[in-house]
Each structure stands twice: as structure tokens, then as C-alpha cells.
Amino acid sequence: MEAVELFEHPLFHGADQEALRRLLATLRPQLVRRGGRLSTLDAESVLVLVLRGRLRTYQLTPDGRELLLELIEAGGFDDILAARAQEGHFTDAEQDSTVVLVPLSLLEKVLLSEPRVALNLLRLMHERLHSREDHLEAMALHDPSRRLARQLLALGQTLGEEVDGWVVLNPRLTHQMLADMLGIRRETVTLHLHQLTAMGA
Fold first, then answer.
1. What are the backbone dihedrals phi and psi of residue 35, each rounded to the nearest 5 degrees, phi first?
2. Does residue 174 come out as left (phi exceeding 0), alpha (psi in the -120 to 50 range) or beta?
3. What is the pLDDT of residues 7-49, one digit of tens each?
4. Domains of the chain as residue ranges with CATH
């Protein structure tokens, strides 16, 4: 594996690369094609580092709808717990993606040998938790317009890029993706987006 590419992941920023090379030598990048599902083949849980592309995590509701939990960009991470798919949680590639699966047993050795990685992991987990809390808060609001506005603000903070004084979401999200994030119908999103636009939002 190209160690340079792996060490560009925020998990390893500021860490002693020479000390980690030996520990991480067995890791291999995996290309996951758009729509492909990530899973662990054995009983061990893994940390998924996204080097390129974008993943989406979602849960199936009892009535079979997808509830989008998170979009994970390059530089992000996900955890795949052994047999988690049986609980209705899934991670798929939103676009062709390059990932590295780090078994938790190896991650533990890395954290013990290089404290900087532990600090980086805490920071990344904090950012992810903050994003999830914003998502849950948006879902808790009863008024769909307020829920949608809150979700768009949160997405703007995590995925937005400022262009000519406007915040542009990259990637562009479909009405269906927004509906999946909020657990509502696509038609409801379309209606309330029009209402927000009419209000000057």
C-alpha cells in the first residue's frame, strides 16, 4: 500500500510515520464501487478509513424505508461492528471509494504505540458526534420546514463550501437523500423546500 496516501488521512496527522509503518504494513486499500456494501468478513469489528470517495450509512426502518444517518467524505471514518448488518445498519459506497479496513485489534496496538493517533481519533469522534447530534436535533423538530432548515444548516457546516457569498453543498443532495436523512417523504421535502425558498431562505 502507498503509505503516503494512508498517512494523509486525518487520523495520522502529526504522528510518527516511521513508527507506524511497520504496524500498518499489512493494510491494503480496497476499492468499493458505487452501491457496493462494506462488511467485515470475519468476527472482528473494523474501523473504516475513507481515503477517496464517499460512503453513506443508513438504517432500515421497520417498514423498509432507508433512514440516512451520515455521508462520510474522504478523510472520514466509519466503524463496522461484526454482524451489525443483522441489526439493520448498513454502509454503502455513495460513489467509487477507496477505503482501508483497520481491525480493532490492530487499532489498539497503534493507539498504544502512537498517542498522537489517539488524540486525532478523539477529535474525529467528537466532530462526528457533534454532527450526529445536529442531525438528531433536526429530526426531533415537528415542523418539517424547521427540520429541513436545521438539517441544511448542519450539512452546510460539514459539507458546505463558500462560493460568492453562498454556501454550496458538495456533493449536491437530492430531495430523496434529504428525505432519507429526516425520515420523511420526498414530496414533503420538495414542498417545504419551496416554502423555505419563498421565505427567502
1. 90, -10
2. beta
3. 999 999 999 998 899 999 999 999 999 999 987 655 578 899 9
4. 1-126 (2.60.120.10), 141-201 (1.10.10.10)
